[in-house]
Design goal:
single chain; about 190 residues; alpha+beta; Aspartate Aminotransferase, domain 1; three-stranded antiparallel sheet; 5 strands; elongated
Amino acid sequence: MSSDFLSKPCEAERFSLIYAHAQKNIGPAGVTVVLIRDELLHTMPDNLPGWLDYRSHIKAHSNYNTPPVFAIYVVLLITRWLLQEIGGLANMARINEQKAALLYAALDESDGFYRGRAALGDRSRMNVAFNLQNEHQERAFIKASQLAGFSGLSGHRAVGGVRASIYNGLELSAVTQLTQFMRDFAQKAKG
């Protein structure tokens, strides 16, 4: 699991082990969460290296290495926020669906000005990647978005384009502002 971890409910009982790089939704980059069934612990081979043998982590009360205290504290704050302010993962999923729906509607209703990169059935609720007509327009879009107060919209360095990351912490109102900016930018560019 990766960027969508804690963005929606997860049927954890379906898995024997969940290894989640938490990335942005549960803490700072580098935080990793491991959930493991007791049954799996009893069937692990004895010749595993210590860092892969989760029995050694359990014996050390999750302190196999020096714990990253600040990162753990951030995880605590985020889980409290998810439970107490958001109302749980089902509510977080609804909010994330609304954010993604707004952005994808802006793409789909642009008459091809914005072109989503993912197939309809593969669209992410965390990262909405898209292109404009050409690289010149994409550079103009990024520059105009920065002047309008948006940041972090440049696409992944390997593929370019534009990428709007809409992780849990980004409020619905920010996505509404971005989609309005996108509509205004497209209208001006079309003349």
